[in-house]
Amino acid sequence: MKADRAYPRFIITAKGTRWVEGGHPWIYAEEVLREEGACENGALADAVSEKGKYLGTGFVSRESKIRLRLVSRNANDRFDSAFWRRRVQYAWDYRKSVLRPEDLGCCRVIFGEADGFPGLTVDRFSDLLAVQTLSAGMERLKPTLFPLLLEVLREDGQVISGIFERNDVAIRALEGLEQGKGWWGGEHPASPVTEICENGVFYTVDVENGQKTGFFLDQKYNRQAVARLAKGKRVLDCFTHTGSFALNAALGGAEHVTAVDVSESAVEMARQNAARNGLADRMDFLCADIFDLLPSLEAQGGKPYDFIILDPPAFTKSRRTVGSAERGYKEINYRAMKLLPRGGYLATASCSHFMPSALFEKMLKSAAADAGVELRQIEMRQQAPDHPILWNVPETDYLKFYLFQVV
Description:
Elements: E1 9-12, H1 14-21, E2 26-28, E3 32-36, E4 44-49, E5 54-60, E6 66-72, H2 81-98, E7 106-111, E8 120-125, E9 128-133, H3 136-155, E10 162-167, E11 180-184, E12 193-198, E13 201-206, H4 220-230, E14 234-238, H5 244-251, E15 256-261, H6 264-276, E16 283-287, H7 290-299, E17 307-310, H8 322-339, E18 345-350, H9 357-371, E19 375-381, E20 400-406
Parallel strand pairs: 1-4, 9-10, 14-15, 14-17, 15-16, 17-18
Antiparallel strand pairs: 1-3, 2-6, 4-5, 5-6, 7-8, 8-9, 10-11, 12-13, 18-20, 19-20
Helix pairs in contact: 2-3, 4-5, 7-8, 8-9
């Protein structure tokens, strides 16, 4: 390591050193033995082993259990504007390689650690960028980073009218950051509502009031897989949100689609999206709790649907609640399997990385056994490639999506 480096140094335990050398970019506060040099919240610091070996450079989070988030393991890197521009360019070039050209108008441009921007999410919805900044380092970097985002995209011919910040999330408190939302900078359109087209389906997206950043982009190609199976079928889309799976099923030629969500505002948006796409004549919409609806449908007898889609919100956001989440997943999957006829189809998903694939599959086997059915797997899928998975960062691997025939 260069002796003239100007960054403060965090001396890391042997355990923490092994963790970092294994490829994970997070260093927890309990693994910091001592600090050498003053370092402000959100500033850069070097991580060094007890023996003086350079481990990497990252952003300091004074309020978080994750004390240091590494952004580089190269001691020769200079973290100037040119460095961050290369990072943005690399992230955009990756999307251009792994997505179809027509998908670039609505995609995740930056996916946190997977793109070398810890705690940063950037989603593109047509001419708007919706951004969540969830770490002190990224918050501090915004004045440099956001203009670079606009520069890289616009130089590629992309029309971007403004950046809307969705920092109205409680997790920012863990970083000592205030919550809030609104336009960044002085350049923005009059409205935070725009329209996107994904898989040939048009959606209204409200980046100010929609869930997360306004729309869930990670199921993009899983929706296409559902559309391929839906032709001629009677479909029940549970947890429909603004209707994405339901609309893909209808566009794929489903005989009829019922879209259900517990949120009346989401159901109304789904209804509007159906009308916008000319699909309302083969769809109906219901505001209901799925945990109540599925048992009531079963009690009524008959098999009204031959394709059921389960795409619930994350039932667990910590390891402490995995047990209750597993019970929740089993309940809805068991009920869906009971409701389907033999030969019917089931799409089921989990979007929590705390629910690993092995546990999710164990739950599905148990639900099938209790329902007295067998599952014929069609395919297992994950998140779209604009949400890349780093194998050394398991937190980036979160979405599990299965398609089955119930036999």
